[in-house]
């Protein structure tokens, strides 16, 4: 069984790493409340999360959403290969239940896996 922790090596740390994904996005995936930016990398899959106060007001809601996103990524990261990914929250995400957020992430990760398998 593969190691499934969410270590520092699994995270985008600091503005330079986030900027690289924003500037060199290979493709985007989205739903009504989530946007995923993906950039090819030469490291294990890494995740960055951006949840602005403008879109999700309460700190407890932002933290709840970050936990769900991290857990969903942690469970599926072995399927992604070498990419950097930034997930951005859009307005309305805080109104969804945990299961609805998880379902949207599963949909996006399925689409991501399909796109990654299609590209050489």
Characterize the structure shown.
With 120 residues, the protein is α+β, with helices and mostly antiparallel strands. The chain is built from three helices and four strands, in the order αβββαβα. Strand 3, helix 2 and strand 4 form a beta-alpha-beta unit. Helix 2 packs across helix 3. The mean pLDDT is 91.
Give the helices and strands, then pairings:
Elements: H1 15-23, E1 27-30, E2 34-40, E3 46-50, H2 59-76, E4 83-89, H3 98-118
Parallel strand pairs: 3-4
Antiparallel strand pairs: 1-2, 2-4
Summed up, what is this model?
With 120 residues, the protein is an alpha+beta fold.
Features:
alpha+beta; 4-stranded mixed β-sheet; 4 strands; about 40% helix
CA(first)-CA(last) distance: 27 Å
Helix content range: 40-55%
Low-confidence stretches: none
Order of helical and strand elements: HEEEHEH
**Number of distinct helices:** 3
What global shape is seen?
globular
The count of β-strands is 4
| pLDDT averaged residue by residue | 91
Structural class: alpha+beta
Strand content range: 15-25%
Arrangement of strands in the largest sheet: 1-2-4-3
Largest pleated sheet: 4 strands, mixed
User: If you compute it from the alpha carbons, what radius of gyration comes out, rounded to the nearest whole angstrom?
Assistant: 14 Å
């Amino acid at each position: 069984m593969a190691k499934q922790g969410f270590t520092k090596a699994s995270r985008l740390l600091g503005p330079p790493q986030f900027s690289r994904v924003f500037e060199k996005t290979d493709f985007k995936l989205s739903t009504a409340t989530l946007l995923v930016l993906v950039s090819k990398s030469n490291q294990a899959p890494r995740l960055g999360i951006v949840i602005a106060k403008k879109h999700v007001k309460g700190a407890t809601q932002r933290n709840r959403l970050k936990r769900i996103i991290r857990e969903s990524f942690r469970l599926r990261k072995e399927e992604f290969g070498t990419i950097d990914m930034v997930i951005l929250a859009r307005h309305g995400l805080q109104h969804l239940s945990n299961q609805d957020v998880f379902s949207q992430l599963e949909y996006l990760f399925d689409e991501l896996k399909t796109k990654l398998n299609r590209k050489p």
